Amino acid sequence: MSHHILIVDDEAEIRSLLEQFLSFSGYRITTVATAREALAHAAATPPDLVISDLQLEESDGLDLIAKLKAAQPGLPVILLTSVLFDRQTVEENLSKRVSAYLPKTTPLTQLLAEIQRLLATGK
Amino acid sequence: MKDPTIKRVLALFALVTVVLVAVAAHAVRQLNRTATASDWVNRTHALINELEGIAAATQSAEGSLRVYALTRDPRDLAAVRRSQVRLADHLEVAGALARDQAATAAQVARLATLAETRNAFARELGAAPPESLAALLAADAASTAVEELLRLVERLVTEQMDLLAARDQESFLQAQTTRWTIGLGVAVNFLLLAAGAWLIRDDILMRRRAAAAMATANAQLESRVQARTAELSAANERLNLENLERRWANQALEHQLRYNHLIINSITDLVFVITKAANISRINPAVEHDTGWLAKDLINRPLPELVRLTAGELPLQRALKEGHDLRDLPAILHRNEGGEVPVRFTFYPLRDGNNVVGGVVILNRTTA
Q1: Largest separation between any pair of C-alpha atoms in chain A
Q2: Domains of chain A
Q3: What is the CATH number of the domain that holds B55?
Q4: What per-residue confidence (pLDDT) applies to A105?
Q5: Which residue range forms the structural domain that includes residue B58?
Q6: Which residues does chain A have with pLDDT short of 70?
Q7: B259 and A108 in contact by Cβ < 8 A?
Q8: Do B255 and A109 touch (CB under 8 A)?
Q9: Using an 8 Å Cβ cutoff, are B334 and B303 in contact?
Q10: Residue A30 neighbours by CB distance under 10 Å
Q11: A24 and B237 in contact by Cβ < 8 A?
């Protein structure tokens, strides 16, 4: 049974590209545009990993991640955003809340490697 | 019909047919010869019988004639005539049997002549008065007709027997030739059929080998096609992934650019990007809104034509040259419709590595 990944991003192009690439890599993919949809899907079909944007239309990605982790502790979450944080901010504020922070300029192969690492370690 | 094996097999069957026809023709000819020879043999035997009958009738007639000469009994004369009739019959039949053989026919004719001589003598003797019989018989004693007739008959019989023997030898040789011919024909046909069978067997083996080779080639081709298909599929997957990666990189750049624009355009203060020569290279929408100038009128225009520092141009030139900030300096902004607005002037140099390549000017409207 392949792993289930939930992708949360308000941009359709990004959702589509991630879905194509990760489906091609053998994962079951669910894509949603809003935090509300993400919570509903996660409640119905708990994902093995979540990839979320930081800036969502109705909410904040970090708030969504907090709610998802409250329902499913230990859920690996990748924060994928075009907002560039400096290393200190990432280490101090984000590392405790997400499993990995990746800029949207990260190559897909590197994103895949991060997904595989997180799914293998379960963090 | 391009198959060489079929051509060869058909040629072999044609040869078999030719040999069969030749053997059959030879056998038929030999049968006809045998039938003809059999007729000849029968006729020759009949001739010999007739010749022996001629000899017997002659001797019987001569015997009866001698008895009549002694007894003068008409019954003996009648016996002579009966023998002469038989002799005549034998001569007639012998003549008919020998009519195809000129020499024999001539000799049979000679026999008839001699027989006629004896018949004439018998008739003379039968008609002669008793007192002249002795003289006639004495005169006949010197006649050699009977002896000549009997010798001729014996010679003819001997000749016919020799001919029979020769013909028998010839028939034997013909039979032997026929046996050899038929045997040879059968043997040749057997060899030809064996060669045909060998050709067919060889062809079948060759076709089986060709079919096996074809199957192997097909399997190899199938394997190569599968390998090539797998390679193409893998290449297609790589291309798809590369395409996705390229689209992802493009959207990331676009997203980043759009985000940067969003940040600048969202600022309500007036933002100018200037070159190292203090020419305007970019503005935010707030500039157009607050000055009434359009971007196309301001781009590449010297900033001091639009914004004048109260302290003069020197501080900006120095800041661009030395790469240091100017913060919150008083300045005057010239609006498009001719009015002037007091603003606070802030400058940040733009650095590319260690080089100052321009700067960012931010104007805050003064509230007082």
Answers
A1: 38
A2: 4-116 (3.40.50.2300)
A3: 1.20.120.1730
A4: 86
A5: 4-202
A6: 1, 84-85, 87, 90-91, 122-123
A7: no
A8: no
A9: no
A10: 18
A11: yes
Which amino acid is it at B142?
A
* B208 within a domain of the structure (yes/no): no
Answer whether B251 sits within 8 Å of A83, measured CB to CB: no
Does A108 reach chain B within 8 Å, measured CB to CB? yes
* Under 8 Å between Cβ of B177 and B30: yes
- State how many domains chain B has: 2
> How many whole angstroms separate alpha carbon A31 and alpha carbon A6?
6
Dihedral angle sign, alpha carbons of residues B43, B46, B52, B53: negative
Q: Which ranges of B72-144 would DSSP assign to H, the alpha helix?
A: 74-97, 102-127, 133-141
Which of B237, B251, B253 is closest, CB to CB, to A13? B251
Residues B191 and B82 in one domain: yes
Give the model's pLDDT for residue B358: 93
- Whether residue A26 lies within 8 A of chain B, CB to CB, comes out as no
Contact state of A107 with B259 under an 8 Å Cβ cutoff: no
Q: Are B276 and B361 in the same domain?
A: yes
Judged by a CB distance cut-off of 8 A, whether residue A85 touches chain B is no
SS3 (DSSP) at B232: helix
Split chain B (368 residues) into runs of 10 and give each run's mean pLDDT: 79 90 89 86 91 92 87 88 92 91 90 89 85 82 84 92 90 88 90 89 92 94 95 92 92 85 88 93 91 90 92 87 92 89 93 90 80
Residue B207 lies in a domain: no
